[in-house]
Write a structure and sequence with these properties.
This protein is an alpha+beta fold. It is built from 14 helices and 28 strands. The relative contact order is 0.10.
């Protein structure tokens, strides 16, 4: 058998494979039936070599014989490189759960699927969860009330103890229940004291817990303890908050050494778990540190009520780009204000909204001290997604300074200076501002280590008055890919980086900006241009400056850039 040059296969894109799947579904091409190697997509099993063969023709326009390339593990690696899930049942490659059986070619998976819902809670008897061949982790997220009494706290513990959940998670800073007092900056002793008291709680309810804690130096921790840890499981772990805090983990001496343990995944029942705190969900690097280690779940412990649409988008993006589940809980607040809500969030690895049920109160609403249970499976079992409204109402910018040609950013690039590969500087006519244009091809826009090094490129440091534009270019897109994956990601890229995001393909043109409070805006084309307000495109400089009563400091940026270098390597 002659094997195709590996470089040829590297040219085939995510979109090529999606088109190949659609052709397979509609045209029913002939193929050699696979006995062991499958591409799994949206609950269907596809013969891996057949899809590769079609994808090759989609990209190159010519046929290829199945004898000219390998199947098996090589095909699994090919699809996984593009972000798909594929398995070789003969060798087990790609199977993160025990061997999957009883699947039929081209038919919907026989496993039950989760229900997609919109911002609501259901009763436990209504829930329809996937019955995976692998493990399920049941996580109880406490929607804790700030004025909870000791009796109320004990009620939460008693409910958790009598339940079948595997992990109980409290929001950011809640150790006032444990009567932990500050001890004159003896921070290590304080932490040990917290570990001791949390281990007592864990032992009482016979379950591991995640608890929020602030030490006397102002460090905010998420502390994990498991008094009954089995061999290979994590007994204690602490994570220190990085942003929107009076004392950042970035201020630790020898931060890179500190981060080695900071981002070590927690192990519980064969699941790997990462922790983040509150506003860290707005920064892709923190979750990505876990995603590159193949975690199954990232838990975000938030302080209090949030703008639900905004918080949902950020955490949905963290799930999609890291191919893991994401869960969020927070304190319950009676006085919402500014459209804020107190609730929990859950997303699977495809960005599908997960269904919780409450075991400590009403099933019909988000209630104080509710314990909202999410059943989390392995990423390879996820089949449900939540579509994004790609046709949401758009608006022209009333204030605009720059016109970007629709589907023709190249016109600007031709008048720009190349700074580095894929990075250009365009001087804005009649303004003392420089447009930094970063080109990100295909599904690399899902990968933080692909685009963040461009926005934070050291060669940009000497350029003044920078305004940032991320341009995501595709040869062809299906509406399905745009709805399920790209639309939420592109919105979040604008929000998290405070920049303009442009989508260019042969069949879709989109433009996104963000408001000053980091809400997403879809910009309507005006004729053949997008009119851009570059005052809302100041990029990293908008984030890393002394603001919010010194809860965000410019000096922290250097260690954030070190994390970017780390994930890029």
């Amino acid at each position: 058998m002659s094997i195709m040059n590996k470089e040829d296969w590297n040219k085939i894109t995510y979109e090529d494979v999606i088109v190949a799947i659609e052709k397979f579904n509609t045209e029913h091409p002939s193929y050699n039936k696979s006995r062991t190697t499958y591409l799994i997509y949206n609950g269907f099993d596809y013969p891996a070599k057949a899809i590769r063969k079609i994808a090759y023709k989609v990209h190159f326009g010519t046929d290829i014989s199945v004898d000219e390339f390998s199947g098996g593990d090589e095909s699994v690696r090919f699809f996984r490189r593009l972000g798909f899930h594929a398995v070789n049942e003969n060798t087990g490659l790609g199977m993160d759960i025990k061997k999957i059986s009883s699947r039929k070619m081209g038919k919907k998976s026989t496993k039950d699927e989760s229900i997609v819902h919109k911002n609501k809670v259901i009763s436990k008897k209504e829930i329809v969860m996937k019955k995976n061949d692998g493990e399920i982790l049941k996580v109880g997220m406490v929607l804790e009330w700030d004025c909870c009494t000791e009796a109320g706290f004990q009620r939460i513990l008693d409910t958790a103890k009598s339940s079948d959940i595997d992990l109980l998670v409290f929001p950011e800073y809640c150790t006032h229940y444990l009567h932990v007092e500050h001890e004159n900056c003896l921070c290590d002793h304080e932490l040990n004291n917290v570990y001791e008291k949390c281990l007592a709680v864990s032992k009482e309810i016979v379950k591991p817990i995640v608890f929020g804690f602030e030490d006397s130096k102002g460090r905010l921790y998420s502390v994990y303890v498991n008094a009954d840890a089995k061999k290979g499981e994590t007994r204690t772990h602490r994570y220190v908050k990085h942003v929107m805090t009076s004392y950042s983990a970035f201020e630790e001496e020898d931060y890179m050494q500190f981060s080695q343990t900071q981002f070590t995944p927690i192990v519980l029942k064969n699941f790997k778990i990462g922790l983040t705190i509150c506003y860290e969900c707005e920064f892709p690097v923190f979750s990505r540190m876990y995603g590159l280690q193949g975690v199954d779940l990232v838990i975000n412990c938030t302080g209090e009520s949030v703008i639900a649409h905004k918080w949902g988008l950020f955490n949905k993006a963290r799930a999609i780009e890291n191919k893991c589940s994401v869960l969020v809980t927070m304190k319950y607040s009676v006085d919402y204000g500014s459209g804020r809500k107190s609730r929990t969030f859950g997303y699977n690895s495809l960005g599908g909204e997960l269904l919780p049920y409450n075991i400590n109160g009403s099933d019909n609403e988000w209630v104080k001290d509710g314990i909202y249970v999410y059943e989390v499976g392995k990423a390879c079992n996820d089949t449900e997604y939540t579509t994004d409204n790609i046709n949401a109402e758009k608006a022209e910018n009333k204030n605009h300074q720059v016109d970007i040609p629709v589907n023709n950013v190249q016109k600007l690039i031709l008048k720009s200076t190349e700074i580095d590969e894929g990075i250009y500087c365009h001087s804005v006519k009649n303004r003392n501002e420089n447009l930094i244009i970063c080109l990100v091809d295909g599904m690399d826009i899902l990968v933080p280590e692909k685009f963040l090094p461009m926005l934070y490129n050291p060669k940009l440091r000497t350029i003044k008055h920078k305004r940032y534009v991320l341009v995501n270019r595709h040869k062809h897109l299906t509406e399905k890919t745009l709805e399920e994956t790209l639309s939420p990601i592109l919105k979040v890229r604008a929000m998290e980086n405070f920049c303009v995001v442009i989508l260019e393909s042969d069949n879709f043109s989109k433009c996104y900006q963000t408001s000053f409070n980091k809400m997403s805006q879809s910009v309507m084309a005006s004729g053949d241009v997008f009119k851009i307000d570059i005052s809302r495109a100041t990029g990293p400089e908008a984030t890393w400056k002394n603001k919010n009563n010194d809860n965000m400091l410019k000096k922290w940026r250097s260690n954030y850039e070190m994390l970017i270098e780390k994930i890029a390597k």
